[in-house]
Amino acid sequence: MIKQLPVILLLLAGCACDPEGKEQCVWTLEPEPGLIGKTEQGYIPVCARNRMTMKQDCRLQVEMQKAKDYFGKKFRYSDLKVESPALPRTIVDIKFCTESKEDTK
């Protein structure tokens, strides 16, 4: 068993590189009606959702026009630019994925 330990640890480390899928190009921004009234004036509450891993971040707000522009576009959570450490965090920009097979990995 002790001889197999390094191999087991190596396999586990390889699987745990991105357990929440933050580097996957499958995240979308969706409005969150349940949080209306908890954002600053001129902003709407949104969630960044990864439907493959069932992870989400609903501590976000964005201006209405940006929300319309961002709706339905896929991005990596790591490419989400936010400001303000207080909640809700304001989305400043998102680098969206391009339409290639590489982006779905």
Write the SSE topology:
Blueprint: H1 5-15, E1 27-31, E2 43-50, E3 55-63, H2 64-70, E4 75-83, E5 89-96
Parallel strand pairs: 3-5
Antiparallel strand pairs: 1-2, 2-3, 4-5
Task: Give a nutshell description of this structure.
This protein is an alpha+beta fold.
Summary tags:
about 100 residues; alpha+beta; five-stranded mixed sheet; 5 strands; about 15% helix; about 35% strand; elongated
Task: Give a structural overview.
The chain has 105 residues and is an alpha+beta fold. It has one domain. Helices cover 17% and strands 37% of the residues. It has two helices and five strands, in the order αβββαββ. It has helices spanning 5-15, 64-70, and strands at residues 27-31, 43-50, 55-63, 75-83, 89-96. A five-stranded mixed β-sheet has the order 1-2-3-5-4, covered by helices on one side. It is elongated and about 60 Å long. The model has no long low-confidence stretch (mean pLDDT 85).
Order of helices and strands: HEEEHEE
DSSP strand content: 35-45%
The chain-level structural class is alpha+beta
Distance linking N and C termini: 34 Å
Number of helices: 2
The main sheet comes to:
5 strands, mixed
Q: What order do the strands of the largest sheet run in, or round the barrel if closed?
A: 1-2-3-5-4
Uncertain regions spanning at least 5 consecutive residues: none
- Estimate percent helicity: 10-25%
**Annotation, overall tally of beta strands:** 5
* CA-based gyration radius: 17 Å
- Principal-axis shape equals elongated
Number of domains: 1
Chain-averaged pLDDT: 85
